[in-house]
Structure formats: structure tokens, C-alpha cells
Amino acid sequence: MHVRLLRSPPPTGELIRPVRLSPTQYRLLCNYIDRAFRRQPDGRYLLIPGYSYGIRDRFYEGNGSYQLFFNCNNWTNTALKTAGVKTAQWAPFPQSVLYHLD
Hints:
The chain is mainly α. The chain starts with a strand and ends with a helix. It has one domain. It contains three helices and two strands, in the order E-H-E-H-H.
């Protein structure tokens, strides 16, 4: 799992859309994300030491695997679907995730 610290929300753009969630939907989304991380015995997320693109990002061990038919776009689509957001049936490309968000 690649996690990046943002000091403020990113500007809406070609591949970034705002998504309005109810408190229940937000909780469902957070739970989905939380369950995607592998944990240490003490419950903390399992950091992959020495891997980052810079000072504001980290990589963590995740549950599941990245593959041709389940990539980051499919993962994001499933996360949104779990929260009750209308999404694509299958989302191998960013545009597939964004289609229902416009």
C-alpha cells in the first residue's frame, strides 16, 4: 500500500474528483481501507522499511496482491462500491473509476 501525506486536498483535475459521502459511507470506506493493511502483532500497520518516493510517503504491506485483473483502479472502485458509491462493474483503468463520479 502506498500512502502519501497531503497537507491539503488535491485540486480537482483530470484524474481527481471530489466524492461526497455520508458519515456512514465514510465509515464504510475507512473500514475497507483499514482492513487492506497487514498488521504487526501489536496492531500497527506493517511498514516496508527503506521504500518511498520522498519524505512524505511510505509503503506498507497490504492484504491481497496487485495483478493484471485487480490493480489499483479495481481496488479503488471496490472501496467506493463498499461505501455505497455508484461505480463501474469492473475498473481496470482510471477512467473506469471516474466515469460514475462525473
